[in-house]
Amino acid sequence: MFLAKCETALPIRWSRPLPEGCEPSTVTVKLDHSGRWHICLLVDNPNIQPLPTCTKSLGLDVGITSLLTTSDGDKIANPRHFKRHRRKLKRVQKSLSRKQKGSNNRQKARIQVARTYSRLYNSRKDFLHKLTTQLVRENQTIVVEDLAVKNMVKNRKLAISISDAS
Asked: Do residues 155 and 57 lie in contact, with contact meaning Cβ atoms separated by under 8 Å?
């Protein structure tokens, strides 16, 4: 794939193949903070079928120790992504703070911090996407409690745990 103002083709690692007979209608190219390029292709696929209907309904209660408790009594554990990445994040941020401002080593350390945050963000996003997709496929109606997360995060003792639960 060639981009404007680029002399050579970009090496692309496809996450999935394009559907047969579909042409991209919109192409979006983004550069994130960690130095990775992302290309988003928008296609109209007429072969997509709606999900089969079901009559099951579900209520969700959000918590800290268990991420979700369903009205069926199932508990979904909180994977605590921040807790897993905390040590590495602390190390790379400390390394960044020791670098001289404006230096190339500081730029390298900044990218390393951005990549660590990117791993944290991607692991959270992946888990939540898989969980919500499973819940939507299995249930017709989903009821979730209304929480004032902005106010809950003001509690200093619970702020990290609440934010880690996303």
From this structure: no
Identify any residues that bridge with 29 across adjacent strands, giving them in sequence order: 39
Same domain, yes or no: 2 and 22: yes
Segment 42-50 shows an average pLDDT of 87
Strand arrangement, sheet containing 75-77 = 75-77, 66-70, 57-62, 141-144
38 and 88 share one domain: no
Give the separation between CA 144 and CA 97, rounded to whole angstroms.
Answer: 41
What sign does the CA torsion over 120, 123, 127, 128 have? Answer: positive
State how many domains the chain has.
2
Residues 45 and 61 both lie in one domain: no
pLDDT tens for each residue of 110-141: 999 999 999 999 999 999 999 999 999 988 89
* Half-sphere exposure in the Cβ direction for 116 (13 Å, CA): 21
Residue 80 burial class via C-beta count within 10 angstroms: exposed 0-12, middle 13-18, buried 19 and up: middle
Per DSSP, 113 falls in state: H
Which residues is 41 bridged to in the sheet?
A: 27
Structure confidence by residue, pLDDT tens digits, 7-20 = 888 788 888 888 88
- pLDDT reading at 3 higher than 80: no
> Which amino acid is located at 135 in the chain?
L
